[in-house]
């Protein structure tokens, strides 16, 4: 056995040596005759690098009997969820938002102030809640001033409550008003043509109630719309003059595509009483019409049927036509109208225009026989608007004011019997440069041609009014207003005229020029915070103390007042 191992080992080394010799190139040299040895030169081509198989590199064999398995530990969280078999895309569910914070309303306010000319003022406005469909509130105002002349005093109080409810089909609204005006007949003649040492005091009390129901607007082309309103008032003065009135108005309109068929009607029931006068003055009006409104064209054609009854009885029919054409949308429109009407004369209306009326005023209705107007209106871009109108009126029995013969500081009312003609031009403009600057202006030019009278008494031919508002910043603002009135004419009696007055007697009349005036007012306001602000105002800055609206009544001179406003 040992011999076999030795034999195998010897054979292995011999084989290895043979392979090593094959890796070398031998070069045999020639044998010299004199050398007894053989010289052999060996040239090495590359170094020897033994290469072993991969299996030979393993130092030990793997354990093939290791069959142990690895078990991973898992934690499961099962959700109870319904299996949805619908393959459609699920709709996104809107997430509920947090309630929006309500805006803090500060449309209620209290205002109070005082100043020179014994000025005192107070205002209050209250609106209950921010619901647009249900509104209710009230307003109060007091203003009083006095001048340097004897009993040159004015005071005015006004109280009003209102309400409105918007229902599904109709809108209901109503209001109650009370007004009181206090003054004195302080009129004086600078030339001492009469004496007025102890001016009488006067006061007017006015109660009014109004209610209205109207259908809501709808886009239905064939809709039926309607409205009804009732208004009534009671008026009285300190000298036992009384007046009451009830006015009923109705409106019905049927839309048929671009056409409208409608009917408007009203009835006025009024009575005026004084010591020597009692007049029942009633008017019934009926206005059927047809209206076309399409593609920038609006034409309304109808008639105005008027029936007077009571102290006066007359039936009249007038045209009632209006037209509006849009030439350039929002920039230029032309319009025109042709109409006639009967205007009911009332003591309330007369004293609003001239509070220095005498007692036992005669009541006559004025008749606007024919009135024509035409003009243009539109805008010239954001913040700019304009309107220009030319009109011509023919009025019968137009009321005019004249000084009483016995008491010139009191005014009677006469009527220009016949057809008085009036030609006028009216222009309006509004410019708003930004939220900081706004200006408005209005001018009236009128030319009167009296019927029986020599002049249209106390009717100026030029009237101009303008307002300017400038916000310097969020806290400081300024405003200014100017009113300009041209000269007018007044009639003075040199002898007692006939009673009742029918036609003028120029032998006992004289004409006096009432000079025009310019009234300039300025004001400023400063906002302290969201609750409090202060204001100041100056009236009649040009200190006009001679020329007033009516003869013998001078205005109060320059006066300044200011105060505090609280908003909540």
Q: What do you see in this structure?
A:
The chain is mainly beta and 568 residues long. The chain is built from three helices and 26 strands. It has helices at 2-22, 54-57, 347-353; strands at 24-28, 40-44, 109-115, 119-127, 134-146, 153-166, 170-184, 201-215, 224-237, 242-256, 259-273, 278-294, 297-310, 314-328, 332-343, 366-379, 384-403, 411-434, 437-449, 462-471, 476-485, 488-493, 509-514, 517-527, 532-539, 559-567. The protein has a 22-stranded antiparallel β-barrel. The longest helix has 21 residues, at 2-22. The radius of gyration is 52 Å and the shape is elongated. Residues 18-34 have low confidence and may be disordered.
SSE pattern, N- to C-terminal: HEEHEEEEEEEEEEEEEHEEEEEEEEEEE
| Estimated helix fraction | under 10%
* Rg estimate, integer Å: 52 Å
Largest sheet: 22 strands, antiparallel, barrel
State the helix count: 3
By secondary-structure content and strand pairing, the structural class works out as mainly beta
Unreliable runs: 18-34
Amino-to-carboxy terminus distance: 126 Å
Shape: elongated
How many individual β-strands?
Answer: 26
Question: On the 0-100 scale, what is the average pLDDT?
Answer: 88
Strand content: over 45%
């Amino acid at each position: 056995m040992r011999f076999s191992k030795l034999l195998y080992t010897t054979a292995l080394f011999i084989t290895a040596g043979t392979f090593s010799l094959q890796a070398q190139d031998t070069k045999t040299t020639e044998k010299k005759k004199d050398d007894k040895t053989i010289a052999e030169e060996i040239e090495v081509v590359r170094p020897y690098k033994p290469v072993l198989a991969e299996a030979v590199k393993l130092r030990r064999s793997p354990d093939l009997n290791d069959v142990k398995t690895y078990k991973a530990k898992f934690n499961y969280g099962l959700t109870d969820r319904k299996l949805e078999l619908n393959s459609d895309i699920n709709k996104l569910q809107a997430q509920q938002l947090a309630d929006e914070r309500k805006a803090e309303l500060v449309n209620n306010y209290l205002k109070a102030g005082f100043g020179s000319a014994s000025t005192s003022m107070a205002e209050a406005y209250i609106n209950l809640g921010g619901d647009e469909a249900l509104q209710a509130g009230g307003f109060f105002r007091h203003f009083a001033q006095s001048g340097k002349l004897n009993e040159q005093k004015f005071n005015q109080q006004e109280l009003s409550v209102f309400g409105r409810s918007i229902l599904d089909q109709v809108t209901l609204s109503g209001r109650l008003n009370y007004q009181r005006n206090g003054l004195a007949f302080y009129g004086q003649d600078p030339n001492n043509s009469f004496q007025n040492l102890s001016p009488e005091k006067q006061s007017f009390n006015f109660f009014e109630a109004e209610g209205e129901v109207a259908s809501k607007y709808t886009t239905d082309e064939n809709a039926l719309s309607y409205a009804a309103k009732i208004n009534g008032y009671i008026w009285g003065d300190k000298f036992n003059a009384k007046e009451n009135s009830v006015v009923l108005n109705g409106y019905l309109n049927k839309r048929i595509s671009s056409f409208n068929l409608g009917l408007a009607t009203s009835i006025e029931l009024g009575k005026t009483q004084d010591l020597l006068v009692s007049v029942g003055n009633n008017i019934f009006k009926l206005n059927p019409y047809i209206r076309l409104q399409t593609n920038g064209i609006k034409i309304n054609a109808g008639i105005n049927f008027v029936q007077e009854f009571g102290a006066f009885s007359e039936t009249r029919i007038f045209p009632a036509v209006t037209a509006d054409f849009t030439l350039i949308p929002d920039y230029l429109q032309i319009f025109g109208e042709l109409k006639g009407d009967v205007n009911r004369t009332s003591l309330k209306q007369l004293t609003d225009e001239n509070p220095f009326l005498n007692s036992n005023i005669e009541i006559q209705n004025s008749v606007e026989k024919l009135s024509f107007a035409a003009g243009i209106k539109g805008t010239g871009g954001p913040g700019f608007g304009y309107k220009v109108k030319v009109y011509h009126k023919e009025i019968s029995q137009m009321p005019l004011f004249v000084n009483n013969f016995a008491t010139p500081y009191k005014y009677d009312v006469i009527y220009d019997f016949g057809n008085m003609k009036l030609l006028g031009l009216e222009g309006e403009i509004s410019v708003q440069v930004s939220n900081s600057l706004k200006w408005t202006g209005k001018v009236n030019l009128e030319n009167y041609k009296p019927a029986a009278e020599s002049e249209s008494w106390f009717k100026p031919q030029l009237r101009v009014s303008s307002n300017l508002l400038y916000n310097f910043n969020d806290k400081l603002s300024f405003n200014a207003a100017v009113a300009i009135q041209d000269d007018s004419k007044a009639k003075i009696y040199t002898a007692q005229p006939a009673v009742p007055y029918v036609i003028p007697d120029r032998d006992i009349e004289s004409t006096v020029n009432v000079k025009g005036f310019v009234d300039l007012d300025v004001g400023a306001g400063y906002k302290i915070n969201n609750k409090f602000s202060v204001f100041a105002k100056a009236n009649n800055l040009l200190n006009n103390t001679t020329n007033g609206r009516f003869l013998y009544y001078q205005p109060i001179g320059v006066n300044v007042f200011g105060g505090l406003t609280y908003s909540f």
